[in-house]
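Hey everyone, long-time lurker, first post.

I ran two proteins through the pipeline my lab uses and got sequence/structure pairs for each. Pasting them in order. The first:
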Amino acid sequence: PNIITYNALISACEKGGQWEKALALFDELQQRGLEPNIITYNALISACGNGGQWEKALELFDELQRRGLEPEIITYNALISACEKG
């Protein structure tokens, strides 16, 4: 699997309310040497938000910036939504 496959899987977890599985897939993709991109982080932040894990969503936001990724409007919307649900 490549990053596109993992992004699709993480997005499916987000839509299915499986935030823990989404984070497990995130760990797995990194163990396989793949680099997460902004799409990965957007889906993860949304998944955590849907699961009421606003603090983890904030951690992921910080992490993506440390990796040099540029947040998009989708990123900010997902983060705001996560904080609203927390």
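...and the second, right after it:
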Amino acid sequence: QAETESSMPFREEEDDYEEPVPHGWILNPDSNTRISWDLGSLIMVLYDMVMIPMQAYDMPENTFLDFMEWTTRLFWTFDIFFSCITGVVMTDGSVEYNIRIILKRYAKTWLTMDLIIVLSDWSEVVFSSGGVAMLSFARTTRIVRIVRLLRLVRMQEIMANVTERIQSETLGPLVQVCKVLIVLLTISHFTGCLWFAVGARNTSESTWVKVLSYDTQGVDAQYLASLHWALSQFSGGMDEISPASALERLFAVAVGGLIFVVALVMVGVFTSGLTQQYIIGGSGARQLATLKRYLKQNNVSKVITKRVCRNAKHAISGDLTPESVELLTVISEPLKVELAFDMYSQVLMWNPFFLDLLQENSPIMRPICHRAMHMLLLSATDNIFQMGEEPAEPKMYIVVSGSLEYTDSYGEVAQVAEKRYVAEAVLWTNWKHRGTLTAVSDAKLAMLDAQGFHSIAQRFMRRSEGALRIVQYANQFVEDLNKSEFKTDLG
């Protein structure tokens, strides 16, 4: 059957709401499995970062070190496989599950480095399992373990993936402090281990290790002394441990210059983070002061001034509206659809009718969430609708947070708490509100625009097999409403 002129544009429009293609055994980069693996990668990188520089010391062999040696070796071997079956996040925010594109992207980025590191790990096992000559060669080639430090290049990517999932504004400054602290300890750890390696080298001249008799002490004393020296370089050095040879003096000078630059950068990063938080907080205060000055200049009463300021303060300090987030305007349209569906589907499921549609994975739900749903922020004492009002733009309301009161025609008051929906009748019939809905506290409501819902439903009813369910539910709802002696907005 040929398409009419009115249905052809709808087919083009419907392309924005294509259902996600099943990706089978390819992992979503944001799945719990992949998140757990990324956290494991972070732990393994931190372990290598700590233990590899410790080769400067004569570390005693024990069961724990052997176990961790095999754990890291096997983990990074399997990491190559996991990287090959993890979807790729594209620039528009979508996830690509095509195995060819995944392998091509991995081959261009981390595959070469991962193969070099893994092969260096397993070569040590091969050499160690040979004869005396091979065993001796394996010991001399343990320096190859330093290749593992190339994984520090991936540290930035792993940390970015982890911090992207931290959405709390309170944790933001804490994360910045932790980053600075980690950088400080990392530089001190590497510097301390190198300082001990320089002092413990085989030479006939004096070294700080020999002068202070640390060559006869245990690894714990040697490491703590080296770490103490490295940390002291951030504050100008220490007199207890000092260079005893020209090479050590040269090393100390180089470290002092490097740490001076690093300290300046760390202070700058930390200060800029605090300044950013101050600017974000101060912006709201300046807007509130301007509003108060405007109300005063126009002789607005104190009661109204208080209500307006409370409402504005709630708006800038509470939940944000889409209009206040500038970056939402630059993301791709398909990603906006997925964003709206993720936000509003978990609210619409509180209504039995929409819960059924969501469980059936009905294609109508994505356009409803994207085009017909909005958020409404309220302050205490705000009225949503009045009794007897016939709204020009009817909407169904769902309470996301806060509490409200509904007063019916008999003057009886009912509490409307979270997860309750109000005025569903506007979706199925011409409706005049049978009561008054008022916010008791600061509240957040999700609104479903009835006109937008009707438009979307009419379009999908022409093509969707689920159209009969919508018609049946609407007829049953209106029939039950007509049988009811006491009509109410509450659902």
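Reply from user beta_strand_b:
Welcome! Quick read of the second one: The longest strand covers residues 395-401. The chain is about 55% helix and 10% strand.
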